[in-house]
Design goal:
Blueprint (H helix, E strand, L loop, with lengths): L3 E6 L7 H7 L5 H7 L24 H14 L3 E6 L11 H9 L6 E5 L4 E2 L12 E3 L6 H15 L6 E2 L2 E6 L8 H14 L6 E5 L6 E5 L2 E5 L6 H10 L4 E4 L2 H9 L1 H12 L9 E3 H6 L11 E6 L5 H4 L5 E3 L3 H15 L8 E5 L2 E2 L4 E2 L9 H11 L3
Parallel strand pairs: 1-2, 1-15, 2-3, 3-7, 7-8, 8-11, 11-13, 12-14, 13-15
Antiparallel strand pairs: 4-5, 6-7, 9-10, 16-17
Helix pairs in contact: 3-13, 5-6, 8-9, 12-13
Length: 386
């Protein structure tokens, strides 16, 4: 049986008044993608889209074509990144709202709450000074209720992806929510009051250079390594999450490069120091350390990663994956399938990073170098008999 592949979907590919103000008229994700330049010999930049071109997500034809390509790849549905900053403030909501209201494309979806603040450090910052653009706020139960009812039409949509009959909701920064267990309980109760069986909450396990845990109500940082995966996952599940989205990227980089060397580079980068040349990793070396045995737990949902290069966003970067190919990505998918093969079919979930994170070099959509290679590689890996 083929696993349930759910691809993260970024809605940044259309102009908004806020981005016009912060970054210049007409800014979208494509702005920095198109002006990226190679940082070293053989560096694959810029990355130019092929079949879909430099699209605008306000166009329904584009969204239909994306769904068709994803369906061909064997992807079950998209996980749209959703932004709610408190007091009803949203950003980038138009593409998903139009998908919901129009009923098109007829392709499954779920939502991931990207509950983090926006700063001008997200993209190249010529001033060198980080400033807050949109702060993530948590305004208490009344705001949580407003948030829930804003999403209720989506939860009731026949296309919404469910696990055990419950709508799947992913939380990007689970430990940032004050009294997160109370929040989870509130939404589950509201779901039941509105005719649903509950909510299947999944907590993202790696949102920084180190894993985070709660101990006695306080955050604790833990260096990513294979020996503490069980502790981190168990702590997150203990808060009331139904599942954990396991991401092995930071752990793998530390194991390949040496954890303290990488931490120093991260610190220098955050202080505004640009390291030249960037730190590069062989894609296959990363994948050797990407998974842990706990990824086979019934309620842990690993990720599959095709490529990685954030230099279009940052100008320089300390983590660029080189020599990623569709063939090597196919090996990764087969490796992930072997890890989850003994789970119940409902829980054989793999989150794909990502469908269209072009400024992270992290996408499945066709480009001029590989064409539909990654789509074909995913389909081949998902249909192979294990």
């Amino acid at each position: 049986m083929s696993p349930r592949v759910i691809a993260f979907y970024l809605p940044q590919f259309h102009p908004t008044p806020e981005n016009d103000k912060w970054w210049g008229k007409g800014f979208t994700e494509w702005t920095n993608v198109a002006r990226a330049r190679p940082l070293f010999r053989g560096h694959y930049q810029p990355r130019i889209p092929a079949d879909l071109g430099f699209y605008d997500l306000r166009m329904p034809e584009v969204r239909e074509q994306q769904a068709e390509l994803a369906r061909d790849a064997g992807i079950e549905g998209f996980c749209y990144w959703h932004y709610w900053f408190g007091r009803g403030k949203r950003l980038l909501e138009r593409p998903f709202n139009e998908v919901l209201e129009s009923g098109r494309p007829d392709f499954p979806f779920c939502l991931g709450w990207a509950n983090h603040s926006w700063t001008n450090g997200t993209w190249k910052n010529s001033s060198g000074r980080t400033a807050m653009l949109m702060e993530q706020c948590y305004e208490g139960d009344d705001d949580f209720r407003e948030h829930f009812f804003a999403l209720l039409p989506a939860f009731r949509d026949k296309r919404y992806i469910c696990v055990n009959g419950k709508p799947l909701v992913l939380i990007y920064a689970p430990l940032d929510i004050p009294n997160v267990s109370s929040f989870l309980r509130l939404w589950r109760n509201l779901a039941k009051e509105n005719g649903m069986e509950g909510i299947h909450f999944v907590g993202y396990s790696e949102t920084s250079s180190s894993w985070q845990m709660l101990q006695n109500g306080e955050k604790k940082r833990v260096l990513p390594k294979t020996s503490n995966s069980a502790e981190v996952f168990t702590a997150l599940l203990g808060l009331g999450f139904d599942g954990v989205h396991s991401v092995g990227k930071n752990r793998a980089e530390m194991l390949v490069n040496g954890r303290y060397v990488r931490l120093v580079k991260i610190l220098l980068h955050r202080l505004g120091c640009r390291i030249a040349p960037p730190t590069t990793y062989q894609y296959r070396d990363i994948m050797k350390h990407y998974y842990v045995k706990e990824d086979a737990w019934e309620n842990v949902y690993p990720s599959i990663l095709s490529q990685w290069d954030r230099s279009p966003r940052t100008g320089n970067a300390f983590d660029i994956y080189i020599n990623s190919t569709p063939e090597y990505f196919r090996e990764t998918v087969l490796q992930a399938r072997m890890i989850i093969r003994n789970k119940q079919p409902e829980h054989q979930i793999l989150f794909l990073r990502s469908w269209n994170e072009w400024a992270e070099g992290n996408y499945m959509e066709p480009d001029l170098r590989f064409g539909r290679g990654y789509i074909e590689a995913l389909r081949s890996a998902l249909t192979q008999v294990l």
